[in-house]
Amino acid sequence: PATDPRAREEVAAAWGIAELPLRYGRDTHQIVEAAASGELSALLVAGVEVADLPDPARAREALESVGFLVSLELRPSEVTEHADVVLPVAAVAEKAGTFLNWEGRVRFFEAALKPDQMTRRLAPTDARVLQMLADAMDVHLGLPDLRTTRAEIDRLGPWDGARASDPVEAAGALPRPAAGEAVLAGHRLLLDQGVLQQGDEALAGTRHAARARVSAATAAEAGVTDGDLLTVTGTAGTVELPVLVTEMPDRVVWLPLNSAGTGVASDAGARPGSLVRIGPAAVAEEAPKEVEA
Question: What's the confidence (pLDDT) of residue 188?
Fold first, then answer.
């Protein structure tokens, strides 16, 4: 744990330095704010979909404001459009790595696709790209490949002290929706509008239809029935999806977070747990028909 003095001393001794940095690194929110405000002049972004971030609008401001942007990518994305340098990296099937099984044991795997099986030149792994960038900045990590990285982890050894403490941040008060309001719930579906799924029309054809789920009581209160369009309005805009009445808590609306538009966070400015307004979608007025004399 980074907060344990003995753990910090042991790592510093293993790396041959006097001490580890005392300050904590920035979390995602702090990185975005620092880039948007000009405190950070450069960003390295790897495998991030802007729509997945807590505040996509602020993240877009950060990407536009930062002086120099490097993007590590598998596929072109919204980040790519702002990047000064784009570095392709290997996909999961093209590189070796490790995972933890259900027992917490480390298991190794080799690349499923070997260089001689590829019809194109194999892209470097993200770890290799980070090593090359560090070398260019005269910061030598000494981790040129997976074997060296594994050896370094083994050299540090296991930790037998106390684990990190639980978060101390207190939970916020639960919103109390009134009539015409609901608490937003939702998650991303396995198959949605994710960047890595773009271009695969056959796979897209197996997606679940995007539906807004509410209880029968909530639907009646909002004036909608199964199949009607429900309007969900947040601080930034509106999402409209067909209703699917579901057995669930009242005054809660569940939405697939990235299955329509540019995503719920971008279109409505709302996240799960926030309060939104719900109601039937406005019926578009038909244009008057011309009558020939």
Answer: 93
For residues 35 and 45, give the distance between their C-alpha atoms in angstroms, rounded to a whole number.
12
| Closest among 245, 248, 247, 252 to 278, alpha carbons compared | 252
Neighbour tally for 56: CB within 10 Å:
22
Rounded to the nearest angstrom, the gap between the alpha carbon of residue 135 and the centroid of all alpha carbons in its chain is 28
Rg over CA atoms, the chain: 25
Below-50 pLDDT ranges, the chain = none
CATH of domain 5-156: 3.40.50.740
pTM more than 0.90: no
Identify whether the C-beta of residue 43 lies closer than 8 Å to the C-beta of residue 37.
Answer: no
- Name beta bridge partners: 275: 183
| Beta-bridge partner residues of 182 | 276
Report the candidate in 234, 235, 226 with the shortest Cα–Cα distance to residue 280: 226
User: CA-to-CA distance for 21 and 16, rounded, in angstroms?
Assistant: 14
Residue 57 tokens read as 């609008």
Structure token digits, residue 177: 């929706």
Residue 278 contacts residue 186 (beta carbons within 8 Å): no
* Domain boundaries along the sequence of the chain: 5-156, 181-280
